[in-house]
Amino acid sequence: MLRERADRVADLVADALGLDETQRGEFVIRACGNDAELRAELESLLDCAAPARQFIEEPVFRLDSNFPGATPPGSLAAGQMLGGCRIVSLLGEGGMGEVYLAEDLKLGRRVAIKLVKRGLSAANLRQFQREERILAGLNDPRIAQLYGSAVTPEGLPYFVMEYVEGHDLDDYCREQNLDLRARLELFRKICGAVNFAHQRLVIHRDLKPANIRVTSMGDPKLLDFGIAKVLEPEVEERAAVTVTIAPAMTPQYASPEQLRGERMTTASDIYSLGVVLYELLTERRPYETKGRGPAETARFIVEQPPLRPSTAAPGRRRQLTGDLDKIVLRALRPEPERRYGSAAELADDLRRHLEGRPVLARPETFRYVTAKFVRRHRLGVAAATLALLALLAGITAIAWSARAARVERAKAVSVSAFLERVLNFSNPLESGRGARETTVGEMLDAAAQRLETERSSMPAEARAEVLKIISDSYGAQGRYDLHDRYLAEYVQVQAALPGATPGELLRASAARAGLLFNSGKPAEAERLYREVLPQLRAAHQRGEVAVSAFAAALNGFAYLRRTQGDSREAEQYFRETLALAPQLGPESRYVIGMTRSTLASTLADGGRFNEAVAAAREAIADYRASQTTGTPDFGFSLTVLGGFLTDRGDLEEAGQILRQGEAILRQRLDPTHLWLGDNLRNQAILLVEMEKFAEAETYAAEACRIYRHSFGPHYDHYPTARIALGTALARTGRIQEGEAILREALQQRIESLPAGHFWIALARGALGECLAREGRREEAATLLLEARAGLTARLGPEDPRTRKAARRVELFQGAPPKPES
Question: pTM higher than 0.70, yes or no?
Answer without folding.
Answer: no
